[in-house]
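Entry:
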Amino acid sequence: MKYWEIIADNLHDAGWSLGWVSALCISLCFSGKQPAIGQTERPNTDPRRVREIVQAESQKAATNAVEFGMWVHDREVITMALGNSMTTQKATTAMHYRIGGIAETFMSTLLLMLVEQGRISLDDKISRWLPNLLAADKVTVRMLVANTAGYIDYVRVQDFLNLELAEPFRAFTDEELINYSIRDGKMNFEPGTSQQYSHTDNVILGQVIQRATKQSMKELYDKNIFGPLGMKDTEYPVDQNIKAPVLHAFTMDRKIYEDCTYWNPFWGSSPGLPVSNLYDIGKWGPIFGTGHLISREHFKEQIAPTSVGKGNNKPDLYFAYGFVVANGWLVQNPSINGYSGAFGYNMATGVTVVVETTKTEKTATDASALDILREVSKYVTPGTPINF
């Protein structure tokens, strides 16, 4: 048995099986202490030191606001908010924001749940639902979630970028987004032969899931994840609005400093639309990171290094099913409409870290949340920090 399979087995055994537990019991059991099975090191968790690191990195990045939380299993180590949401409004830990690609951890988990429900197969060719799509007879559902399908990423297409920036309130359809990728009849590579992150793969996966189940992503998330887990601060929006209270975001993308909170997020489609807050994502960390919603075998597959040897993937840094595995951390680091996010779950210690940041006029990076997560990981797990 490989090392990552042993870790997956231990993590899965450490929690509770949610397949048969009622929604009420899920909510009650979540507050219980989790056994330490699967831990291989003790994390550093002094909240004062963590706060110092977050404050220092926030100052270095010139952020406008920072939302930060850290938990060990379900035990809160620290939650904090720095800076302002708007000029006269302090940021608070209760505020909601766009989580972008963190929701890809929802999507891959949902997909594997649907596989177990017999509603879709990872080996299905997507021509079953999208017969006229480029290379659909060669691409499987598994390739989409692993980002090995080979579709060109539409966010790298210049005329899409120009239009998205010129009309930030525009609502793009999935068909429009996919067309930017396939209109020239070209692929990045032959399906399954390499790996490269592609928003297009994820948009197509959302379409496949909805067509296979004949349900919307909102319905599927509410029924399978948000509702049963009591994630009341997480929602799949039908428009650009965000649940109150709102953490406002700002950008210099159009050469002026402006509020971009309500710019339309539909350019990110199904994988990037959900809205949440610090506490719900903190709750999600150990549920996702120990495979509580899926079988042992599917959890192994979800985190497996199947992409190693393809593209730039290495044994200690590789893309799995919708997230990066980096030195034993399961990581997502999205940037969407002025929001910089970072999410990390450490498989050896049960630590979850959630970061969200917004910009001032002086912020020079779109990845300030990842910078904070990276520095915190150096303290929490000094032997295995996030390595990208």
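The two ends are 27 Å apart (CA to CA).
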